[in-house]
């Protein structure tokens, strides 16, 4: 009898393959089929066993990213065919990675999916700058926010988020925010002072990492001037105060992990 197929959603971390968990490495080694997202660095695939089928389902694999429904059908079919399927996603599968949707669809098809956490980009980004996401003096918590919501689902309420971050002393970590950075700056300025420290970290944890440190009032201008681009996270909050104090006005850009 054919052995039963399995499905594991694996967080590949922010890029540096050294940041994979042991569970992730073991799952990748055991996989017969790997469905790989765009933001997963190729170096991570070095752990795959020879002969494993590797399917790139992000933009790098074809001209446009593969529709979500097609990926889910592919996963279900492969599991039913007895494959050991690993779905590799950048960062953590449950932070803006549509991991939740995939688990739900698999569950509806009667397939249980194991999930292996990965280091999310926002955490790797601040760590690369040598600052924490929380700090007893500066930040009592963290908000992970997407910079652009699904079409028709409304954009994040930046003024409300800013007020909340200000009053409750929270660090804001914005994913997918570079394209809409002007709207984010304008919205956040309705609840946070213009001098609030911000950092933009592009390709965190990779050798080509770049980052800029500025203030909220200079955020969009800094991104434009320094040509910072996706994938990048925007960090907002006083945990960056030490860095902002060292940065030369109005912004500092560095290349490579700090
Ligand atoms: N699940 C992922 C996030 C996927 S959404 C995670 O937990 O990290 C895609 C967004 O993640 C990108 O637009 C960018 O905002 C962020 N991102 C992913 N990898 C990144 C990296 N190496 N450096 C900076 N931002 C990154």
Short description:
By secondary structure, the chain is an alpha/beta fold. 28% of the residues lie in helices and 22% in strands.
Plain-language structure description:
Helices cover 28% and strands 22% of the residues. The protein is an alpha/beta fold and 258 residues long. The strands form 2 sheets. The protein has a 6-stranded mixed sheet, sandwiched between helices. Strands 3-2-4-1-5 form a 5-stranded parallel sheet, with helices on both faces. The protein folds into 2 domains: 6-116, Cobalt-precorrin-4 Transmethylase, domain 1; 121-255, Tetrapyrrole methylase, C-terminal domain (Methyltransferase, Cobalt-precorrin-4 Transmethylase, Domain 2, 2-Layer Sandwich). The protein is elongated and about 60 Å long. The chain contains 8 helices and 11 strands. α5 (158-168) packs across α6 and α6 (181-188) runs antiparallel to α7. The chain binds S-adenosyl-L-homocysteine (SAH). S-adenosyl-L-homocysteine binds at residues 14-15, 39, 89-92, 95-97, 120-121, 125, 175-176, 201-205, 230-233. The site of S-adenosyl-L-homocysteine (SAH) has 24 residues, from α4, β8 and β10.
């Amino acid at each position: 009898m054919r052995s039963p197929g399995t499905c594991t959603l694996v967080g590949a971390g922010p890029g540096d393959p050294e940041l994979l968990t042991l569970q992730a490495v073991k799952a990748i080694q055991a996989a017969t089929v790997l469905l790989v997202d765009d933001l997963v660095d190729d170096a991570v695939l070095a752990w795959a066993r020879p002969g494993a089928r590797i399917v790139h389902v992000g933009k790098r694999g074809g001209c446009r990213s593969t529709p979500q429904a097609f990926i889910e059908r592919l996963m279900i079919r492969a599991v039913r065919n007895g494959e050991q399927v690993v779905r590799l996603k950048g960062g953590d599968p449950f932070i803006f990675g549509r991991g939740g949707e995939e688990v739900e669809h698999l569950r509806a098809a009667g397939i249980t999916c194991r999930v292996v956490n990965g280091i999310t980009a926002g955490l790797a980004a601040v760590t690369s700058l040598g600052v924490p996401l929380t700090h007893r003096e500066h930040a009592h918590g963290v908000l992970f926010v997407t910079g652009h919501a699904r079409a028709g689902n409304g954009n994040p309420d930046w003024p409300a988020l800013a007020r909340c971050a200000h009053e409750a002393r929270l660090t804001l970590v914005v994913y997918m925010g570079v394209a809409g950075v002007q709207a984010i700056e304008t919205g956040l300025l309705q609840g946070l002072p213009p001098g609030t420290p911000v950092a933009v970290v592009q390709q965190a944890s990779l050798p080509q990492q770049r980052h800029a440190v500025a203030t909220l009032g200079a955020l969009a201008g800094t991104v434009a001037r320094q040509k910072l681009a996706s994938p990048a996270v925007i960090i907002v909050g006083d945990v960056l105060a030490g860095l902002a104090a060292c940065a030369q006005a109005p912004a500092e850009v560095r290349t490579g992990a700090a």
